[in-house]
Known about the structure:
This protein is an alpha/beta fold. It has one domain (8-195, 223-247): Rossmann fold (3-Layer(aba) Sandwich), CATH 3.40.50. It has helices spanning 23-34, 46-58, 73-87, 110-137, 159-179, 197-202, 206-215, 224-235; strands spanning 14-18, 38-43, 63-67, 92-95, 141-146, 184-191, 246-249. Helix 1 (23-34) packs across helix 8, helix 3 runs parallel beside helix 4 and helix 4 packs parallel to helix 5 (159-179). The longest helix has 28 residues, at 110-137. The relative contact order is 0.15.
Amino acid sequence: xxxxxxxxxxxxxPVVISxxxxxxxxxxxxxxxxxGARVGFVDIAEAAGAALAAELTAAGRAVRFTRCxxxxxxxxxxxxxxxxxxxGAARVLINNAAHDQRHNWAExxxxxxxxxxxxxxxxxxxxxxxxxPGMAAAGGGSIINFGxxxxxxxxxxxxxxxxxxxxxxxxxxxxxxxxxxxxxxVNSLVPGAVxxxxxxxxxxxxxxxxxxxxxxxxxxxxxxDDCARMALFLAADDSAMISGQHFLVDAGWANS
Length: 256
């Protein structure tokens, strides 16, 4: 018996997750599938996404994967419609897909600006637009937008990523108001320094891990599972009267 919570309201609940093939997204897919939800997820990583879906399907979980670039809004909305046809209208949407590519602000072009905002913000709005009618007709649901503490702590070399993630807060607040009377809750989940294989491969050296832990109130390092467990709560009926809020999962970061 697991020491973590089970949420009866998530059983058979249709869930859509973006960026679900690796990192935090993979953990989200696994956790929701383990709760008995019907999970549809997209990612540009076709091999990893297909392998994850095949593994979970073989284990008896209701999981579907569609290879999709979320910056192609038409294709992404079509993928969401495909999940609805297979699983029923989404009752949970998790806008997780993002990319924290490092960049020099002095070299940013208008085209690069548009590209970064498309992958880190734009798709979240249009995914909400796609699921909201069906979600409302089904009796409501939960939308979870992934933010980041990066803009709060002024992380260097990612100003466009930080701009998009700061905007997630405004998007969450505004859409919580727009959708609330349809019994749709909209909240932000804001991770701290989550240690993933990608972060370890690209950015995090032993000295960086020490520095991260020094900034946290809690010892140890955040994992994707820490974020997924908060997402389960926000998706379940246990959080039925929570909307328009921002939930930090950052081990108590102090930027000093």
